[in-house]
Amino acid sequence: MVLLRSLICVLALFITRINLISSELMINSVFIAANRIQFYAVVVPYLIREYQRKNSPASAGIRILSENDPDIANNLFGKVAIITGGSRGLGVEVVRTFLRKGAAVITTTSSKDPGTIESRYKKIVRNLPANRCNLEIWPLDLMSMDSVMEFVNRFKNRNDTRLNYFIGNAGTMFPPYKLSVDGFESQFSINYLGHVLMSFHLMPYLYRTAKSSDTESRLVLTSSCLHHIPSKIRWNDLQSRQVYSPHYAYGVSKVSILMFIYTLNRLLKTKQDWYYHVKLFTLHPGLVDTELLKTIDIMTQFPAISNRLTFRDTKAGSETIIYAALSNQLNGEGGSILKTAKRRHHLNYLIIKLNR
To answer: What start and end residues bound the annotated signal peptide (predicted)?
Structure first.
């Protein structure tokens, strides 16, 4: 009888455990599906806006930026920019714009192979005049904070440490689940943490450069409209070890950028001289036809959506980054998110009023 009761207890515990596992799997599946639905709910209005931009921008109040517009700085000789992710996709257009205007640019690649670096250098400077090719490409692996510090220390050890612009543009979207060497979810590490670490170390150089010439330096980090995906952040599972939704994790990395710019801007306001000389911006570059689109199933199934109807090419996609870095319309401002090369909201609005 005792043995029978013991067996019944073990069986009951086993069934309970199975039910708990099934319930957990169900909850995780619902979480993943809900974030996938939220992704499309966020993207559809932006698809409509991108369609308007391509077909009737004036009626939609959308500005089509030209890098030669009067509010965009044209002569950047003597200026220095660090631009991450500038050797591929959208970043190439940003780097080329800075080079055409005469800036010295340090950009990054995840590859350490000299042949790869050389081929990317040639691709970027193709057809540029010899005096507009002041470009260096340095290795940077945003999946490793040691690599980030190697990059930062390489800059600090230069003879010339002037820095007018830091643009954090490198990113990844919806990859399979992977942790960085430091134990961070890959999108959180690449899109957010690596750029935050760089920002803290490069801020003094942005400040000193601007102060020495009584101008503004700018720090610009690329976010996304998909910062709207997370309804709340799962602080107890920030690295998605328990359940991984690529859409949710991407959204967390992007809303984290908003919170960082907002918080750092508030800190700078307590140090008036820093706030006067260093301006911070984040932005949504628009829906851009880059390699990242290959991670979105509907775009691979219906390429006409991206190629013809709505999505920007990389040149058009670089507009808002160029606007954030170079437009004199933003002089004296800071702590804003830019959604086109015209529309902007102060982050107080998004984070406080919308409880982001």
So the answer is: 1-23
Give catalytic residues, as residue numbers: 250
Task: Name the domain count of the chain.
Answer: 1
pLDDT in tens, 13-58: 544 455 544 556 667 887 788 788 888 787 777 777 777 777 777 6
Contact 356, 350 (CB under 8 A): yes
Q: What is the CATH number of the domain that holds 309?
A: 3.40.50.720
Share of the chain above pLDDT 90, in %: 53
- Structure token digits, residue 136: 């260096």
Alpha helices by DSSP H, listed for the chain, are 2-55, 89-100, 114-125, 145-156, 186-187, 194-213, 246-269, 272-277, 297-301, 303-304, 314-317, 319-326, 347-348
109-122 pLDDT, tens digit each: 999 999 999 999 99
Q: pTM, whole model, 2 decimals?
A: 0.86
Which amino acid belongs to residue 200? Answer: F
Domain range for 48 is 2-353
Amino acid, single-letter form, for residue 114? P
Indicate whether 11 pLDDT > 50.
Answer: no
Residue 150: how many other CB atoms lie within 10 Å? 15
Report how far residue 27's alpha carbon sits from residue 151's, in angstroms, rounded to the nearest whole number.
42
